[in-house]
Amino acid sequence: MKVFKFGGASLKSADAIKNMATIVRHNAQAELVVVVSAMGKTTNSLEELLSKYRKGESSSLDLLKKYHLDICDSLFQDKNLITIKLEGLFSDLLTNLSQTGLAYDQHYDQVICYGELLSSQIVSDYLIEAGLNISLVDSRKFVITDDNYRNGYVDWDETKKRITHLRLDLTEGIVLTQGFIGGTKDGHTTTLGREGSDYTAAIYSFCLDAESMTVWKDVPGILNADPKRIKEAELFHEIAYKEASEMTYYGASVIHPKTIKPLANKNIPLFVRSFDHPERAGTIIHDCEVTLPTPSIIIKENQCLVSFNVLDYTFINEENLSLIFKELAVLDIKINIMQNSAISFSVVVDYREDKLEEMINVLKEHFDIKYNTGLELITIKNYRPDTIVQYRSGKNILLEQTSRNNYRALYVV
Ligand code: ASP
Ligand code: MG
Q1: What mean pLDDT comes out for the span 391-401?
Q2: Residue 59's pLDDT is what?
Q3: pLDDT for residue 291 is more than 90
Q4: Do the domains spanning 2-286 and 296-412 agree at the CATH topology level?
Q5: Region 160-184: what's the mean pLDDT?
Q6: What would the pLDDT profile of 232-251 be if each residue is shown by its tens digit?
Q7: In the chain, fewer beta carbons within 10 Å around the N or the C end?
Q8: Which residue has a Cα nearest atom 7 of ligand 1?
Q9: Residue 190: what pLDDT?
Q10: Burial class of residue 314 (count of CB atoms within 10 Å of its CB; 0-12, 13-18, 19+)
């Protein structure tokens, strides 16, 4: 039994979906779960729509509708049935968009899920028309999470119980489902965090004891740097779970950070392969040891440096640190790197204005808080001295740390 995941880029046009169908058809003999994301940049468009609705600005669904219907034009001979189904989804989306009274994160999930709902409906109907045996399954009823909207925590017992029921469907055909979205036990839609479809595929792999999971991407596999930023990026043929998991922690965007753990726990290999060159092997992430690994260069964008300065002449100590950590935990803000001096403690976090404001409000009675935005955090894993020199030069560095294996620096963009 295998699990495939196709991301937005591999579904962004009718041609891309036809290519995806060819890859699926070649593997249709094996028991297969196929996880799909929203098409192209749909999730971003939905985020923009949501933000306009919440500000009370007028905006229409026409562009998003046209994008999906145009794709259907080239996929289906008779578009009637799929058009009726999509109209239904768009009308539900509109109803959900209008729920502006909901708290932001909850509202977000009720709206953003439509990217995956639309794409899975189109792909399912297309694969069926192409002669494949497909059962379309709603992940909101299988991936069960708590109600931590926008970053739902998986209830593994319940999820496992439900996904196990899919074994029967798998003997009859391919199970197709949405990535990224889940549901609470009482039926509210949640999401697993941006780019979370990889994690969804890992959840299905874990619960069904898959023999492997494959992520089909618009890159040849896992590279030692983002090829959009660094031209001479090199392909890794194999990577150990631990190494891959750390790369995602430092910000490598090729795989969602939560993906590796469920796979490593069951020793399920993860393949990252190119959908443009399905004949190539790509990268395998599994249990292995690589000697003298090539340095990886990982850059996290949109970082914010927050410095907490004590208000009197006391030093930074465990008591005031615990106030800071407690608030970070409450707001679910992750620290990407931290540093302290005698009277100040600094954390670097992904910049989210709303969360930052909330944190400052709560902690300003204890600290003088200053922050800088517009920063990037570079990590060089398995660095060599010359790699540090190369990436350090010419940068306005605000914070820097070197350990045995990693070099990290925060700089102004
Ligand atoms: N569609 C979602 C996103 O763009 C999930 C995913 O692509 O993995 O973040
Ligand atoms: Mg994606």
Answers
A1: 95
A2: 87
A3: no
A4: no
A5: 96
A6: 899 999 999 999 999 988 88
A7: C
A8: 195
A9: 98
A10: exposed
Q: Which amino acid is at 235?
A: L
Helix (H, G, I), strand (E, B) or coil at 310: strand
Whole-model pTM above 0.70? yes
pLDDT of residue 28: 86
pLDDT digits (tens, 9 = 90+) for 302-338: 999 999 999 988 899 999 999 999 999 999 999 999 9
Q: What is the separation of C-alpha 212 from the centre of its chain, rounded to a whole number of angstroms? A: 20
Task: Tell me which residue has tokens 């898959």.
Answer: 210
CA 349 vs CA 235, 301, 370, 395, 410: distances in Å: 29, 10, 13, 20, 11
End-to-end CA distance of the chain: 45
What would be the CATH architecture of the domain defined by 2-286? 3-Layer(aba) Sandwich (3.40)
- Quick check: 122 and 75 in contact, CB under 8 A? yes
Q: Choose among 158, 81, 84, 85: nearest CA to 120.
A: 85
7 CA → ligand 2 middle, Å: 5
Output the ligand 1 site: residues, CB below 6 A. 7-8, 37-38, 43, 115, 179-180, 194-197
| Mutation test residue for ligand 1: of 113, 191, 195, the one with most atoms within 8 Å of CB | 195
∠ CA 213-215-216, nearest 5°, is 135
Nearest CA to ligand 1 atom 3: 195
Closest CA to 93 of 124, 117, 119: 117
Ligand 1: centre distance to CA 39 (Å): 9
Closest atom of ligand 1 to 7 CA is 7
> CA–CA separation, 344 vs 367, rounded Å?
9
Q: Are 21 and 278 in contact (CB under 8 A)?
A: no
Q: Which of 37, 45, 94 is nearest to 67 (CA)?
A: 45
Residue that the structure tokens 């259907």 belong to: 72
Euclidean distance between CA atoms 202 and 272, whole angstroms: 13
Q: Where do the structural domains in the chain lie, given as residue ranges?
A: 2-286, 296-412
Q: CATH second-level architecture of 296-412?
A: 2-Layer Sandwich (3.30)
Residue 252 confidence (pLDDT) above 90: no
CA angle 249, 254, 256 (to 5 degrees): 55
Atom of ligand 1 nearest to the CA of 116: 1
Convert the pLDDT of each residue in 45-95 to its tens digit: 999 999 999 999 978 999 999 999 999 999 999 999 999 999 999 999 999
